Fold each of these.
Amino acid sequence: MALAAASTAGFCGSPQAVLQGSLQLGDLSSGRLSMAKANRMPFAGPGGLAVRAEQQQSLAESAATSRRAMLGLVAAGIASGSLVQTVLAETKAPLVGTPGAFSGIPKPVKIAGIAGSISQSAISKQLIHYAIKLAESIPGLEVEYIDIDSLPLFNLDLVRHGKYPDVVQTFMDQVHATDGILFASPEYNYTVSSPLKNAIDWASMEPTVLGDKTAAIVSTGWDLGGSRSQYLRQIGIRPDVYFINKPELFINVKRKVFDDNGNITDSDIEKEFRELLISLRNFTNRLRPCPRI
């Protein structure tokens, strides 16, 4: 049966809709489910009330038949050990469109914070640590600092028998365990910094490390606020990184960005930084696959 063979990973409909018979099988060869179109018959001509009563009775019988057929397919799926079996238990799940529709509260979005400078006093490092602080007041968001300072220069000679240097493997594992990335990227000579490019080159060696990750950039620099380091978006194309489009945040470092207590001096920048993190959280939730039942 098509329904019995369907995987719940791609089944983004309400189980209540199944029980009500509003979901139906489309092309049997495709094994897909679709929403039934409303059957609206014209109400006209003599004996209108009688015709309407007959139409309603016909529709009720059709709906009952559809429900019985659907429940039969669901039962067949249960008997065959299909993942669809728990659909019947989720009779009050909300419709598709809300993250965590089947599992209740969505898991927090975990973001890897990567600074593009290896200087211990770098503004990019301060920005990542400040993002961690901001995330504490943003529901459903966690930011973790991931160090790239000790990564060796990208060199395939360092990969022995398919194994990476320990520090590289640790870095890959840390990034892989997150849902998205926040890059604090300084502009070096009209482009991204060499440590940051180096980290991306290592991470891109394994498709699952960066693949399908979401990302956002806060850039720093003179004059244009490091805008040319936002070319990082182009670098992310090959490893399948998806950057948010807005807001964009460019920070001019000609003036003091942080005070002595580590707080951002400009309230507008702090507001924009918070909005960027919220946008990254929301974008990540939208790109998450349908939760498994």
Note: The chain is about 35% helix and 15% strand.
Amino acid sequence: MDTKQHYRAGRHCVFILHAHLVFVTKYRGNVFGAEHLESLEGIFRNVCADFEAELEELNGEGDHVHLLVNYPPKVALSRLVNSLKGVSSRRLKLMHPELVKPAYQKNALWSPSYFAGSAGGAPISVVRQYIEQQARPH
């Protein structure tokens, strides 16, 4: 495992922001195989590039996927998530027609909900201790 932090820089900031995202399929349907996950990885990488973000990890099972995304502070995470889910749903169904549901069912690939957690960096307790130990001006 690479323990070196890769800081990124913008015009006025230096940052390293990671989000752990989990997307679940509609009705928790077991629809993904290895070929679907491979296709999703390419789709997610392209969407992330549009947001100047990087998909660092992707894995999943038949009914959900986990993503580790490095993103800049100018990106609203909810907008990135909406784009990742929307674009992947449309493109994956074009690439894999077997994922298209009959007309009488809703043709959504993803559940409308998702999980997002901050990831990487020091644990909150370490950051809290560091801030508490800063010298106050006299």
Note: The mean pLDDT is 90.
Amino acid sequence: MRERSAVEVYATMRIALLVVALGVQFGLCARQLGGGSHVLSWSAFIVLGCVSALCVPWVVRGRALPGVVVAVGVPASLAAAWLASGVVPDGLRFQAVDWAFGLVGWHLVLVLLDRVPVLLAAMGAHLGVSAVQFLPAPVAEVGAAGSVVFGAVSLQLAVVVITRMLARSRAEAVAAAAEHDRQAARVRHAEQWECEQRTAFAGRLGAVLPLLADLADGVLDPREEDTRRRCALAATQLRRLFAEHDEVPDPLVHEITACVVVAERRGLEVSLAVGGVPADVPAEVRRALIGPVAAALAAARERAKVSVLRTGDDVRVAVVGDARIDDGTAAGIAGVEVSRGAYGDLVRTETRWRRS
């Protein structure tokens, strides 16, 4: 994105430079050419016009100039400038009649705007040849010539410096805007996550509060088995909900372990077996996998065995306990299958998630 912003700045500046080069050539320099001008001057004028025309297809489309255009445009511009300056009468160099000196600088900047080292080398060669051609001039003219050279070159180099500064500023602005968007996205994600957590906790507490109210009002008898089972289930669900937000390598086993710990605190004898490598299981799928298991643990009386199996095709969580749960198969959520079956005094509950 930073590179793209820099390309856009260079593309815009090239359009402006093309307008400047054509305006200077046909608006100012053309006045210095007349019917008596040397054929080399006319040839140089035409060559410089062709260099501008060569750049037009890429400039108007906002694309960088290809290497072949640079390889042709730079030597052609320098050669045209040297030919035109070579026929300027002595004593008139760096004056209005020496129209090619300043014009070629704009063509070089147009072609080499994004190749600064080559641009400096080309402008240095141009100034060197012009200085050699100017050596026979009287000393009194050196000061005036230096002012002309400084004014033309400094303006052209200033365009290069300004372009690079604009490109850097644009890139920094784009990077800052992108970082701002990322921060805003993180804030929105955090707010959404917080809202989801509040909703989840509110849902769990919404199921617990009526239970506590009924216990406080004497509607439920804590000595009854069903009441104890409901309390155990609420405690297991809350403990799993708290464990859901822990940063652990294996969230599924961590949440199941939290449910096992609650069951053990009730005096239940629980064993846990885990097989397979940790799998990436989404949070909603983990809730669907563990929900029936938590209910089975809450309904168990004395003992239970929990097993977790992860394979390449699916994830299974099963619990076998001495609980009274109706047989049959229940439909799961989030693509999770739930099945139950009785084996004598034991009931087996299994949840299964098939990986897509």
Note: Residues 2-178 form one domain.
